[in-house]
Amino acid sequence: MENIDKSKLTPAMKQYVDFKEQYPEAILLFRMGDFYETFYEDARICAQVLGITLTSRNKNSDNPVPLAGLPYHAIDSYLPRLIKAGHKVAVCEQVEDPALAKGVVKRDVVRLITPGTLTEDNLLGGAKENYLAAICFEQQGKGKKSSEKVGLAWVDLSTGQFFAQKMDVRYLVDELVRINPSECLITDESEDLPENFGNQLRDIIGTVVTKRPGWSFDSRQGYESLTEIFQSGSLEGFGFDEPDCSIAASGVIIDYLGETQKIALDHLSSLRKVVRENFLQLDQTTLRSLEIERTIRDNSTSGSLLGCINEALTAMGSRKLRHWVCYPLNNLGEIHRRQAAVTELVNFDHIRDKLRVILKNVTDIERISTRISTGRAVPRDLLGLAQALRQLPSIREQLKDCCCELLVELNNQCDSFDKLADLIESAINPDAGIAIREGNIIRSGYDEQVDHLRSICKDGKTWLANYQKKLMEETGLQNLKVGYNKVFGYYVELSRHLAEQAPAYFVRKQTLKNAERYITDELKQYETEALTAEQRSKDLEERLFNDLRREVASHTLRLQQVADTVAEIDVLTAFAYIARSRNYCRPEVHEDLDMEIKDGRHPVLDVQLGGKFVPNNVALGGRFGDVGIITGPNMAGKSTYIRQTALLVLLAHTGSFIPARTAQIGLTDRIFTRVGASDELTRGQSTFMVEMVETANIINNATERSIVILDEVGRGTSTYDGLSLAWAITEYIAMRIKCRTLFATHYHEITELSDLYDNVKNYNVAVREWKEDVVFLHKIIKGRTDKSYGIHVARLAGMPKGIIDRSNEILLEIQSTFVKEAHGPELAKKAGKIEDSGQMMLFNNQPPDPLLLKLKDVDVNNLTPLQAINLINEIKIELESR
User: Fold this and answer.
1) I want to staple 181 with a disulfide (CB 3.0 to 4.6 A). Which of 133, 411, 414, 844 is the partner?
2) Structure pTM?
3) CA 569, CA 342: separation in Å to the nearest integer?
């Protein structure tokens, strides 16, 4: 903000500047009557972001002040745009009645709204959590720039979900990508952070970074803050034996929420300790490459795994589903518990279908209860809560006959709230609006005083007519008139010649030319009531609503628990619905390393292609071999096949059924992928560097229980460099790690590894050649191939015929030259070089005839007549082309 001479400011503007100095990083919405005004740079930003008019205050002075305002009642439509643009917003309200103010109206900032502290539905996406995270390195405050351990805490203020974990620093970014926080809190002391840490968070995660004082990252201070808010003597009940960096991070969150929200945080009732080893791990590369949350091409949810399988019917269920998919289980017992529940819901159509009908009527209990607890709920929130609570008995009724452990447990947790729903429905007008101050929110019959005040407002004319009739009867004066005007209020009017007959209790109020006006005690009392009835009614309704809101808030913990229960029921029911409607099978997840999937389908493409997707088998690990090398033409489906395998493994670990005929999957600890290519120039890394960094991460962290997906490793450099690296990497995985690996490649030479190692198997994508055309069958079969059909793909892409013809000429020349040479290029001198034992030639002096190799791999005993004819035809075509 510009340098300002406060001595020249009006009292209101001085007040504005004082608040702006307290919140320099936020846009200050300054309430002035019916508008929120912004000034100086804030006004310029609002005009640009919100598209409102930029004007100025003191236009005729030498230094006009930029000004932009927005109606106070329209703030809900403007706030989302400011927040989505990455701004923080401080809301400064009038905290006293302007009519009663002596001097400048008292104001105060009632809330600081930041991307990580949202609670309103119009600011949030219902299907996704909105996390605020805090990061604390273990050596915080001791001058050490890096540490082996880091504390991470994250909270969704809109639901009350609060988590913390301590982990190795190397896993931090992967965990943050899974959490996907809207805002991250870090220390403002740069010596306690890795170099350029804040910028990395913005670049990689796209989060807003907020710096907090270094002294607030203290584990003991955090421990005290947490025990105070949870009203507990210690945190042992939450799994934290002593203060550590994760507790420090949690404490920073509590401190920040207290500063920004300015309300009690009673809905934060627990802190969940996250143990990394309890979940199948997915790093940032895997989340992106497998398009779990968003597609790579357009960053859209549509076309992602979550977008495809999200058949949850409640917002709570959608958020629970995202958590299950991003945090798949690594505990066999828990996986089987979920599977048993899905199985029962698959088998009993009437239970599943009825539950889905009921769940459609369940509102977002989780977020509504938070808004009630924080005093931000509007009447419609309470009505929505009552509607949801009315569905709970029906949910219990459907689950009562279920036998599996998890569904019985969930049924018992589905608490009853009939009395609370009765209270809400008896108190809140079904037609109540959003604004509390507008009145008409309390239902007729709930409070006698509200009904009385309303009758005064609505039935004033009727009362006056009845009162006039009553006075006529009492006085016998038939020309008596009862009236009202804005200047003199209510009156009884008699013509001048009747004035002498006025009763003693008529008190003269006004003399007119031809009449006298009087007031009575009863009329005066009515006047007092009538003139203030509307405002008193609104004030009373607001007080009653706040009392009701506090009563409902006292049930927050129980409401959170039942919300979590309903969310889990919703996800399990959605899993069952998908399994039934898409013909999924229950995978047998076991302790062994074997993985065999028969007729597996890609969960997203299977839906998008409307059942036309070609299924494939997968046999990997244990007796099937650890490494599968997949060769074949471009566009034939190699990448789809390996991604499909990873997605099926992931889904199986969530407890879901999977698109396959049958499946057996060994328990998996991590899924690694190295798929595609992308420059990261902002981080100083080229395509090939990114490829090597991601591959090195796999090599250094994979275990025998991991699933590794590699696609075209080594293609980012020269042919011989790339082939050498691809060979050595595959060999290392086969010899050292021995994890389940699928490697799709165009380096056909690597297929010779299967001749050297028993745990390496070759597969290829079947094609059918006819004259100049190639038909991709999208079927993975055993054996190797030596063709990629890249020129054919280029022709399909519309490459000019001259280039296609010349490419074919060059290809024939290269192939002819290779055959005429005494031997192929020596890409390596010996197998097992990593182990440095036993010299074995990778290539013979005379390269074997590809046709002989193809015949060698044929399983004659299992060859069908049709396959034999096709094989003979392929050999004939290849011989004719020589």
Assistant:
1) 133
2) 0.83
3) 10
Cα dihedral 739/740/743/744 (nearest 10): -170
Task: Report in angstroms the alpha-carbon separations of 532 from 101, 162, 463.
Answer: 20, 47, 16
Q: How many CB atoms within 10 Å of residue 281?
A: 21
Give the single-character DSSP code of 604. Answer: T
How many Cα neighbours within 13 Å face the side chain of 816? Answer: 8
* Total residue length of the chain: 882
**What are the tokens at 80?**
């989302």
CA-based angle 782:785:788, to the nearest 5?
Answer: 130
- The span from the CA of 150 to the CA of 169, in Å, is 6
Strand ranges across the sheet with 183-187: 208-212, 183-187, 132-137, 149-156, 161-168, 272-273
- In the block, tokens 């960053």 appear at 299
Are the beta carbons of 27 and 42 closer than 8 angstroms? yes
CA atoms within a 13 Å half-sphere pointing along the CA-CB vector of 115: 19
Helices marked H in 327-447 — which ranges?
A: 332-347, 349-359, 365-373, 379-389, 392-399, 405-413, 418-427
Under a CB-based contact definition with an 8 Å cutoff, are residues 379 and 436 in contact?
A: yes
pLDDT at 825: 41
Q: Are 658 and 584 in contact (CB under 8 A)?
A: yes
| Residue 179 to residue 163: CA distance in whole angstroms | 10
Looking only at the bridges linking them, the beta strands covering 588-590 and 670-674 are unpaired
Q: Which two tokens stand for residue 714?
A: 């080594």
Which stretches within 262-360 are classed as H helix? 284-289, 305-309, 315-326, 332-347, 349-359
What is the 3 state secondary structure string of 522-588? Answer: HHHHHHHHHHHHHHHHHHHHHHHHHHHHHHHHCCHHHHHHHHHHHHHHHHHHHHHHHHHHHCCECCE
Q: Enumerate residues 6+ apart whose C-beta is below 8 A from 86.
A: 115, 208
- Sheet of strand 481-485: strand arrangement: 481-485, 489-495, 515-519, 507-511
Rounded distance between C-alpha atoms, residue 694 and residue 682, angstroms: 17
Q: What is the pLDDT of residue 758?
A: 92
Give average pLDDT by consecutive 10-residue segment, the chain, 882 residues.
Answer: 69 88 90 89 91 80 82 85 88 83 86 88 82 86 62 94 93 92 91 82 87 92 92 89 92 92 86 92 92 89 93 96 96 96 96 97 94 90 95 95 95 93 94 80 91 80 84 87 82 87 88 89 83 84 93 95 97 98 97 95 93 92 92 81 96 97 96 72 63 88 95 78 88 94 90 92 82 72 76 76 79 64 43 44 52 72 72 73 64
Letter for the amino acid at 132?
A: L
How many Å is the maximal CA-CA distance in the chain? Answer: 139
